Amino acid sequence: MNIKRAALSAVLGLVVVSVAVHAEQHLYVKFNPGQKDAVKAAVAQAGGKLKHEFEDLGAVAISLPDKARAALEKNPNVVLVEEDPVREFLSETVPYGVTMVQAPAAVTSGATGAGIKVGVIDSGVFAAHEDLAGVTITGEPDFGATDERTWYRDNLSHGTHVVGTIAALVAWVMNGDPRLGIILALAMVVNLFVAGLAGTLIPLGLKAIKVDPALASAVFITTFTDVAGFASFLGLATLFLRYFHPAG
């Protein structure tokens, strides 16, 4: 009987030890500039595994035995160690915002959206954009045309993209012709791409020739976006009318 108990105790002990050895944490580790290889070596030495490298963030995602975390946090090359929780898809969950804006109640009451203003909370909108001509847009706050916080100034372009997409959909619905909506949407995408490219390359070019980008960039970027806006809209319209015009 004692032999059996001793054997059972040994087996249980092995199970406990095995669980303890294999217990690990999934961690996000940020390191000092230029110390990625040193941190990766420390992780490997501690029995951890590298899961992903975030080059632009100076960090890595790893799995590491529980007992090794404290030592890694004290490593002079490490800036931050925090848990990297498991992320799961939320496709089966209704976003909390749907009920917050009372969308289910609106649908139940028979609301269709006709005559309702569309509100966009974003980075602003370039209301003078060629593709938004004829679209009535109002907003707030208004600190004046020279203040970047004013609603009709959109230095990030994202809000203009969103409003342009909505305008394209409205044009489709109101005119019963998807081509106009497609032309508007594609023109907005092309123009925003040009704006992003010009907004990056022009300041770099001015800096290379020792001209202050903050003083000289605006006029060049505006010219590029205006030309691209007209060219993309009119060019796409010509293309669609030439190749996709219905027969008869």
Number of helices: 8
How much strand content do the residues show? 5-15%
- Beta-strand segment tally: 4
Distance linking N and C termini: 99 Å
**What is the CA-based Rg, rounded?**
29 Å
Structural class: alpha+beta
Describe this structure in words.
It is a single chain. The protein has 2 domains: 23-83, 2-Layer Sandwich (Alpha-Beta Plaits); 117-243, no CATH class. Helix content is 51%, strand content 11%. The protein is built from 8 helices and 4 strands; from the N terminus they run H-E-H-E-E-H-E-H-H-H-H-H. The chain has helices at 2-22, 36-45, 69-73, 96-100, 103-108, 158-175, 178-208, 213-243, and strands at residues 24-31, 49-54, 59-65, 78-83. A 4-stranded antiparallel β-sheet has the order 2-3-1-4. A hairpin with a 4-residue loop joins strand 2 and strand 3 (59-65). Helix 6 (158-175) runs antiparallel to helix 7 (178-208) and helix 7 (178-208) packs antiparallel against helix 8.
